[in-house]
Amino acid sequence: MRVGLTGGIASGKSAVSQAFEALGVTVIDTDLIAREVVAPGSPALAEIRAAFGDEVLDAEGGLDRRRMRERVFTDAARRKQLEGILHPRIRAAALARADAAPGRYVVIAVPLLVETGFDRLVDQVVVVDCPEALQLERLMRRDDQDEAAARRILAAQTGRETRLARADHVIDNAGSLADTQAQVAALHATLMAAAARIC
Length: 199
Fold this sequence. Notes:
By secondary structure, the protein is of the alpha/beta class. The chain contains 9 helices and 5 strands; from the N terminus they run E-H-E-H-H-H-H-E-E-H-H-H-E-H.
């Protein structure tokens, strides 16, 4: 069974992913796959360079992710162009890894699960949620962003209400790490039972 894990930026998806991994669940992180597909020498990086120019490369010839993020979060058309290069490659790699994973279910962590239609490729959707004010605070602290830049990044994503409307399960990550881990443990039992019914 494929379980899609999503949430807004800085909502705490990594903490939830780690909690699933601690329970022995395979977690496929599409952010990591996104880094792999743009490795120096990759076809995706060559395509990005042709579309966006040398200014999105770092001194070693790799993708300057911060500079690219700044470019696309302020320009919807350019963001769609980048997504058109990356998303098919990321999706194919994630699904191949999911098919090969052991266990009754696999978690595929996809930040843009709803936005990209990836939610149609999974059996269950788990949304990691927290109040937008907390999300904003975490984003500013984590990425050393000023408030205006952080708000632009949040505004570029699907709204919280849209994600929650698509959720089969919600992890409330506004509290302590222990509380989040307890929620994941309870959800793990639910997903194991659901996977057993499918299998």
